[in-house]
């Protein structure tokens, strides 16, 4: 039996959420297939380096101080309060802060690549992939906050098409992170074109403080969680060779699918929880929390 709360929640925009859920699963399935093919083509040693670069990209997010994470809570909170002025300040401040944070990210990644004695092209690929991921995350958080799952679905399909075309590039020897990064950029550009209100380069101190107070603890918890999940790969990269990391990174792809469904549900429900809190409708907030669990 499906709980009545879940039925009532799905009924008004059931199709949009259903299509979003399907597109979320399809995208991650295609990404999984592309990763397996890329690992097979690259071989264990090269895939080990790619796995290491992906870890660096993940932990480089710490230098953003959690501004995307903070927007994920602050923006739906402002939307729930119907505070249009604060909404624009939050979006513009985060957009500006993302570009500013790209400077220390680029410098730190360059130092790591230099220390590992890897070619400069690896730094360009790593930095481009990291920036594309952060920007796409920014736009997707906006769509999630406004519960615009229709546009979110189309953005996923843009990524799916980009990855599918990228398979041809893999065969020709194109780098896996280049293919995924271009898919991120294409989806981000698609969202940019479709959204009505474009973010601007503005900086608001009050909004930044609010975002950091929320985002830094959330991001820290996420980083610690990811660190616990990837500590084995980090130890392998330190004490063993790229080829051992490549074997492990290849096999670990098969264990990531369990989290996909939970992430999709959280993305759909979290904005409702925050907006219910903003409207002081605590009963609804608890209902959505139950659905999320």
Provide a brief overview of the structure:
This protein has 293 residues and is an all-alpha fold.
Description:
The protein is mainly alpha-helical and 293 residues long. The chain has one domain (19-292). Helix content is 84%, strand content 0%. It has eleven helices and no strands.
CA radius of gyration:
20 Å
Based on secondary structure, the structural category is: mainly alpha
Mean pLDDT equals 80
Major sheet description? none
Low-confidence runs of at least 5 consecutive residues: none
Number of domains: 1
Beta-strand segment tally? 0
Which key terms come to mind for this protein?
84% helix; mainly alpha; membrane; 293 residues; 0% strand
Topology:
Elements: H1 4-10, H2 14-60, H3 67-80, H4 84-115, H5 120-145, H6 149-171, H7 176-194, H8 205-239, H9 242-252, H10 258-278, H11 282-292
Helix pairs in contact: 2-5, 2-6, 2-8, 2-9, 2-10, 3-4, 3-5, 3-8, 3-10, 4-5, 4-8, 5-7, 6-7, 10-11
Subcellular location: Cell membrane
Membrane topology: Multi-pass membrane protein
Pfam families: Polysacc_synt_3
